[in-house]
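Q&A log
Question type: sequence-to-structure
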Amino acid sequence: MSIPEIKLIVLDVDGVLTDGKLLIGSNGVEYKSFNVKDGLGIGLAKFCGLKVAIITGRDSESVQIRSKELKIDCVYQGITNKVEVLDKITASLGIQYNNVFYMGDDINDLPIIRIVGFSAAPNDSAELVKETVNFVSSLNGGMGAVREAIDFILSHQVDYKELIKNYLCKKTDLIQ
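Response status: OK
Response body:
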């Protein structure tokens, strides 16, 4: 499988970085569960110089907190037109669609999936999405699917063993 050089990773949240469940307490506060393996994968991508963005349809304080922890470069929440936001991000970074990796899980992600250079979906994604993407993770959303996809990309772009060696020697403030 030929993979273009990826410079930007763009992720959906619900069903990708999380298992898609929405936990809303009686106090109205929304809770999400994130996987630390995904967090370390994002950190490794950033360690390699890749930019990372989130484009999600929901608006959640927990996404903002997690994004800040992981030093995500661009975070857009409450978005109905994800392609329009992708246009803004790629223009501001000077990156072409061919150099973008996107991971989504449902039909609202198809417009981006169809235009980027490489796309992926968690194993529990909508069937049409899984039929359309370049890579289907063996893992479900929120269970390390993002990490598996990032590892796949990085292993095609860099010497992965050397990356891990460098990461372990130069580990700075990467958070899982």
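Response note: The mean pLDDT is 94.
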